[in-house]
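Bench log, entry 3. Co-assembly request; chain sequences pasted below exactly as received.
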Amino acid sequence: MTLQLTKKHSFDTVFDSQKVFRIILEAVSNPARVLNIAKAANKLFGDFPEILSLAMTLLDNETGFYIYGNYKNVSVESPVDTVLETAVEQLEKDIASLTLARKVEATAADFIFVCDPSSTKEAIEQAKCGTLIDPHKSATIVIQNDEELKCNLTLSGPGIDGVIKVFVSQAVKDALFYRDAQNYEYPEGIDLIFISKTGDLFAIPRLIKVVQ
Amino acid sequence: MNNNYNYAFLDEGSKREIRRSVLKAVAIPGYQVPFGSRELPIGRGWGTGGLQLTLSLIGPDDILKVIDQGSDESVNAVNIKKFVGLCTDIKTTKNTREATIIQTRHRIPEVPLRSNQILIFQVPIPEPLRVVEPREEITKKMHAEKDYSPIWLQLYESLVKYKKVTIPTEYPCMVEGRYVMNPSPIPKFDNPKLNKADCLYLFGAGREKKIYAIPPYTEVISLAFDDVPFERESFAGKICCLCGSKNTYLDEMFDAQTGEKFYQCSDTSYCQEVRQNVSK
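Structure output for the full assembly:
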């Protein structure tokens, strides 16, 4: 397979990757802390530069990825879906050509990118959760989400001093509900990263619990 | 900066693999994530695990401090600092408060670390169960099944033989009630600093090819029995001969001519800071 890369970007694979990684590390170490990667993401192209910057930072030929979008349900009558299909397909090609990561089945993917929150349930159900012996062989799910922050959540776990109350979108609340519905036996589990079009990013690792 | 090498020495593929392992390690506190430890221009066992973590994390905005047994000026610390400086041009410091990344061998600084600081440990033997089980595949299974009875037995045997737990360093601790972890060879004195800390702790074992982590505000409890609580080294009645501190970890010095014993802070930067504050 030969992929031609015709588009140009100014994302520095050494220094921008380092900056984005440190932001992700801070986010994973301090769950629910909102950080921003827009500065680095703006150096990339396409409709999902934030996801692409994460992929450029973490993916390479040793990793497999899968993208969830609406493109399997394309309706000719719906121009919105058609546009999304193009954008998601383009993202898939961009990740493959820029990082050399392999597109694999969702059940085998190390990284799952969800461009459309309506696919979150399927993504979480399909994601690999590792094993008790090798819990690190589990998926990280990156969910793009731009909905209004109207839900109140209380979270606790490592990285949080006691409990933290946060305002999140319905999509985030749903994602945590779907995750909990899987009843993973810790240390098995999945790690979630949420990202918005404005570059805002926060993480919910597997040990973070929703306090009822 | 030496431009014959990539920024921070490691190639970008190696950094990415280490970074992915770091993220998994933070997500599963206390779990040892395997990684492809790279060759470095220092020998394995001399801090290559910690160094690979430092090199994968460090960027132009960072300020690095390296300590060895609490000292900023030991051979290992000075050489690692020089090496990282040579391939990154970053600023280095001896001041704990100023540093963003601190690489350490065998101590946690006396100054409480902040949430924007990362402490990276050089770890010789990451597996706490190695003393009771030599086979890696078995220790992995024991961790999976949370089968820690042999390590409890080891503590119990120590109590029976010596009337106290005699493990001086690498004292095992339980992370978030799930994984028993080896906190690298820090003295027992430093174990309580791991519990519910503000900063991120990363542990790198280059020879054993393992990375593990303790995120901020994580429960880290040193193993102990209900009726025999965990006890750390006591320096009651002893003070640092340089700064007069009474509540720090002290190194014992011995004057062969006079036979006199005296004590000095192991954390040289802290000791110096106290002396400077006194002189002001």
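Chain A has a mean pLDDT of 91. Residues 79-99 of chain A form the longest helix (21 residues).
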